[in-house]
Amino acid sequence: AMTAFLTTLRISPLVIAVWRGACALMGVLATVAVPKFVLWMGLQRSAMAFLLCQLAALVPGVVPFIVLASSRPLLSAGVLMVSVVLSRFGLWGFDVNEVQIMQTYVPAPVRGVVNGVEVSLTRVTTLTMLFLGVIFSDPTEFYVLVIFSTSGVILANLSYLYYYVRYASASSLNMSSSPLLSPTSSPTSSPSEASSSPSSA
Questions:
Q1: Burial tier of 110 (Cβ tally within 10 Å: 0-12, 13-18, 19+)
Q2: Over the Cα atoms of the chain, what is R_g?
Q3: Measured between alpha carbons, how far is 1 from 21 in angstroms, rounded to an integer?
Q4: What is the structure's pLDDT at 111?
Q5: Cβ of 168: how many Cβ atoms within 10 Å?
Q6: Cα–Cα distance measured from residue 88 to residue 82, given in angstroms and rounded to the nearest whole number
Q7: How far apart are CA 126 and CA 124, in angstroms?
Q8: Distance (Å, whole) CA 25 – CA 22
């Protein structure tokens, strides 16, 4: 949707291609950075940090875009493009962390079910955004899609924060009280998590 929007602003295809390449590059950098973040702060904290990075990168670009979209469309689009590129670091970093959390803390017998629900919800949200794109198809209404997308990132942060406080932080990552979120095997936990104790929370 954003590529189509940028095209309507007569932004050069070369610029758009470079922008998309930069987004992909940030994904690669995030993949390289994840192991270092996990060793530094632990698996769950690392995932929270990447989500916050995504939100922190989006908000400074979304607000100017909404404010300046009508008066200075090219400037607002440029700010949003940079914001989206930076946010990809947090997006793909969290994605890698989330996969590892699934493999580490969800028991094997139910892992397929949990993953299936996750994929289904992802498809539903994708279809929702496509449907909204049909409703708000006018380029001047693109800000509505931006607001919906940013709201999704905010909701993701709140959802994971609830999970982190309820199951991870409150017991220093000892989730034995939850049959669904208990670690399946201690060797897969990061060093910082394995050495933590409830008294250090």
A1: exposed
A2: 19
A3: 16
A4: 87
A5: 25
A6: 10
A7: 5
A8: 5
Would you tell me how many other CB atoms lie within 10 Å of the CB of residue 71? Answer: 8
Q: DSSP code of 167?
A: I
Distant-in-sequence, close-in-space partners of 9: CB < 8 Å, separation ≥ 6: 73, 74, 77, 139
Rounded Cα–Cα distance for residues 147 and 150 (Å): 5
The pLDDT of residue 170: 54
Instruction: Tell me 189's DSSP state.
Output: S
Residues 138 and 189: their CA atoms lie apart, in Å, by 48
Query: What backbone phi and psi angles, to 5 degrees, belong to 141?
Result: -100, 10
At residue 169, the pLDDT reads 62
> Measured between alpha carbons, how far is 29 from 70 in angstroms, rounded to an integer?
34
Six token digits for residue 196? 């933590």
Taking residue 49's Cβ as centre, other Cβ atoms within 10 Å add up to: 18
The three-class DSSP label of residue 1 is coil
First to last CA, the chain: 43
For each successive 10 residues of the chain (201 residues), what is the average pLDDT? 84 92 94 93 91 94 87 89 95 93 87 90 89 86 90 92 78 42 43 39 35
CB 57 within 8 A of CB 80: no
- The residue type of 179 is P
Is residue 34 exposed (0-12), middle (13-18) or buried (19+ Cβ within 10 Å)? buried
